[in-house]
């Protein structure tokens, strides 16, 4: 076990109320101890490290000054909330992060009253904070009370349209609301740092309404090139970094930029805002992701997401893999196709590495586009690329593609544009839990006219499906694949386009047919081995396509077997529902066909290992075996015997 850090001050803090008596100097020491405790905890659990380290000082300052849980501190995305959890009564469980029955890796309303709003997707915090502010002013009542609402949002999350929609609405309503823009992409150059310190003193010492008057006389504080009169000085003070003027035009009082790691700036500004704000305020603070832990600061992703690691060396403890990941198989086949066809291009939304498009960006930077956290824009951008004669691959996680669904319908499907949707993280994903599960894409894609929907049973099949998508110009096409490594199957040299709407027979049997869609095929084959001991030999087929269905294959299975079982890693309303619709229209149920559809249960499944989550879902080999025995009546016969 990693040696725990020495944390005498932190040991005295069970809830934020315990921080109220601490001096500013003690709060600075508390931040150091909180950083050490966060590093220690994540080294044992894995998880999002860099984001939390970047907001340690802010977390301490917010909880020291505001009155959570009455005041609502809302962390956008909330992967930076581990220090917040430590300070809000959950330190004793912090080493259960992202594990079964443990703490969520994100804020979660059911976990603590200090988590007023759950998150895991980005750009929702300002909308939520505004909702709490309006509820407060309308007399809404919740057990903890309603005080201030503080949204903490990163510069990446601020790129999403929803954040600006919320800013616009907040400025219009004029409610007291605090937005903290946590900017960890910029560095504070010396001149900006000096002006930042001046702004801090200005706001800490004077009421907001005196700001403009003070700014008029501020020219003397500026270097000679900026002495263009009071108006110009005022604009420099407001807009020195990323456009305070923009936020002011939206109706916010803009403060910043501040050094987000300097408690001597944070504490007086937050105290002044709390005491004097009357309307919406935006505080712009600059931070360093991974701050205070040198290995994370040096890492290219600043320690964004880590496995368990050794604190001293940052050496991560990842199990060796004997098979390529699905994501890497997609990426390599896409690069091969792009080398052969100059029309192949790729779009992702702030996940170039997660979706494997980093490889494409290295080889073909002019044809690879990261649009930021803007899935709606990304889908429509890809649609227009297709309309312009390109062959775009829109690579997004299943859970994030949901955010661009209107654009999938309106801008892609209705216009029958050949956008290729590469849907990563399909199915249950493990430690990130319900918020990141790819449970719904089969249902929400397969109900669209003209949409082709495929699911890879293994990594070789994925390679063929990438090639299939590249060649498909008649309309939109989607293929889904899970997180993690493949099955270790023999890989083809190149992907070969599949015939659209045609599945494949895996093994012939009798009595019961199992029609698999996606990577549960491996579990189905394990089931067959167990059933063979009972003398039961199911027929197994891989559907490959949820739309269009392989009508001939399905009707043949029905004609030759007394029972048909479909299985998929998706929610109700997906592949099995489409099969049932076909069978109903063909009158197959009229003759007494036994049909069962194995899908994800109609519930949100909390984080655990993927294997355990699929056990909870009832989709592992033992569950499939049980379903086969039940549909054949074997289990009931044994019970009677």
Describe the structure.
The chain has 641 residues and is of the alpha/beta class. Helix content is 40%, strand content 14%. It is built from 25 helices and 17 strands. A 7-stranded mixed sheet has the order 7-6-8-9-11-10-15, with helices on both faces. A 5-stranded parallel sheet has the order 1-2-3-5-4, sandwiched between helices. Helix 1 packs across helix 3 (56-65) and helix 13 runs parallel beside helix 19 (459-471). It is globular, with a radius of gyration of 28 Å.
Please write out the topology:
Layout: H1 24-45, H2 50-53, H3 56-65, E1 72-75, H4 82-90, H5 125-137, E2 149-154, H6 161-173, E3 177-183, H7 190-205, H8 211-216, H9 230-239, H10 244-249, E4 253-259, H11 263-276, E5 280-286, H12 294-298, H13 326-340, E6 344-348, H14 357-363, E7 368-370, H15 375-387, E8 391-397, H16 398-401, H17 405-413, E9 420-424, H18 441-446, E10 452-455, H19 459-471, E11 477-480, E12 504-507, E13 512-517, H20 521-532, E14 539-542, E15 545-547, H21 551-560, E16 563-568, H22 575-585, E17 594-598, H23 610-617, H24 621-632, H25 634-640
Parallel strand pairs: 1-2, 2-3, 3-5, 4-5, 6-7, 6-8, 8-9, 9-11, 10-11, 13-14, 13-16, 16-17
Antiparallel strand pairs: 10-15, 12-14
| Strand element count | 17
Helical residues, percent: 25-40%
- Largest sheet: spatial strand order: 7-6-8-9-11-10-15
Largest sheet: 7 strands, mixed
The best one-word shape is: globular
Task: Give the C-alpha Rg.
Answer: 28 Å
Number of helices: 25
- Taking the alpha carbons of the first and last residues, their distance comes to 52 Å
Low-confidence stretches: 186-243
SS-based class? alpha/beta
User: Taking all residues together, what is the mean pLDDT?
Assistant: 89
Strand content: 5-15%
């Amino acid at each position: 076990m990693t040696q725990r850090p020495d944390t005498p001050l932190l040991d005295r803090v069970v809830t934020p109320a315990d921080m109220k008596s601490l001096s500013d100097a003690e709060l600075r020491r508390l931040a150091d101890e909180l950083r050490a405790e966060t590093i220690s905890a994540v080294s044992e659990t894995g998880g999002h490290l860099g984001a939390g380290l970047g907001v340690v000082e802010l977390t301490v300052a917010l909880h020291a000054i505001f009155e959570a849980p009455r005041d609502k501190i809302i962390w956008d995305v909330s992967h930076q909330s581990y220090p917040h959890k430590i300070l809000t009564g959950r330190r004793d469980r912090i080493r259960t992060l992202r594990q079964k029955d443990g703490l969520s890796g994100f804020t979660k309303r059911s976990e603590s009253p200090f988590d007023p709003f759950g998150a895991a997707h980005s750009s929702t915090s300002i909308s939520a904070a505004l909702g709490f502010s309006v509820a407060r002013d309308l007399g809404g009542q919740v057990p903890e009370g309603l005080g201030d609402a503080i949204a903490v949002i990163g510069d990446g999350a601020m790129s999403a349209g929803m954040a600006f929609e919320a800013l616009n609405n907040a400025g219009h309503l004029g409610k007291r609301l605090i937005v903290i823009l946590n900017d960890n992409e910029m560095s504070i150059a010396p001149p900006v740092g000096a002006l930042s310190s001046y702004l801090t003193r200005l706001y800490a010492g004077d009421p907001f309404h005196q700001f403009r008057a003070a700014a008029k006389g501020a020219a003397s504080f500026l270097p000679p090139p900026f002495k263009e009169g009071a108006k110009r000085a005022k604009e420099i003070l407001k807009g020195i970094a990323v456009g305070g003027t923009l936020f002011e035009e939206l109706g916010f009082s803009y403060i910043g930029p501040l050094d987000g790691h300097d408690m001597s700036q944070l504490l007086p500004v937050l105290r002044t805002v709390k005491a004097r704000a009357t309307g919406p305020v935006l505080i712009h603070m600059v931070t360093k992701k991974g701050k205070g832990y040198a290995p994370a600061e040096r890492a290219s992703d600043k320690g964004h997401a880590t496995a368990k690691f050794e604190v001293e060396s940052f050496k991560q403890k990842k199990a060796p893999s004997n098979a390529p990941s699905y994501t890497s198989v997609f990426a390599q086949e896409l690069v091969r196709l792009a080398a052969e066809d100059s029309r192949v291009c790729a779009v992702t939304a702030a996940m170039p590495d997660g979706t494997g498009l980093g490889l494409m960006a290295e080889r073909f930077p002019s044809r690879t586009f990261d649009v930021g956290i803007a899935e709606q824009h990304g889908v429509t951008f890809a649609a227009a690329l297709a309309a312009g004669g390109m062959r775009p691959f829109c690579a997004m996680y299943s859970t994030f593609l949901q955010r661009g669904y209107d654009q999938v319908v309106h801008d892609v499907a209705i216009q029958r544009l050949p956008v290729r949707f590469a849907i990563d993280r399909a199915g249950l994903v493990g430690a990130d839990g319900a918020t990141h599960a790819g449970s719904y894409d089969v249902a929400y894609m397969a109900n669209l006219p003209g949409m082709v929907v495929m699911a890879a049973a293994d990594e070789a099949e994925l390679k063929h499906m990438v090639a299939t998508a590249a060649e498909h110009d008649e309309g939109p096409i989607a293929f889904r694949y899970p997180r993690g490594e493949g099955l270790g199957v023999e890989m083809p040299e190149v992907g070969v386009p599949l015939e659209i709407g045609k599945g494949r027979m895996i093994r012939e049997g009798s009595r019961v047919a199992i029609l698999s869609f996606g990577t549960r095929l491996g579990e189905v084959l394990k089931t067959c081995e167990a059933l063979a001991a009972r003398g039961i030999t199911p027929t197994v087929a891989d559907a490959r396509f949820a739309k269009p269905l392989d009508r001939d294959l399905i009707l043949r299975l029905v004609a030759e077997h007394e029972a048909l079982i479909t299985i998929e890693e998706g929610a109700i309303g997906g592949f099995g529902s489409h099969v049932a619709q076909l069978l109903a229209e063909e009158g197959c149920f009229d003759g007494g066909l036994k049909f069962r559809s194995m899908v994800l249960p109609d519930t949100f499944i909390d984080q655990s290992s993927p294997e355990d989550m699929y056990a909870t879902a009832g989709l592992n080999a033992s569950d499939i075996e049980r379903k086969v025995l039940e549909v054949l009546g074997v289990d009931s016969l044994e019970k009677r015997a």
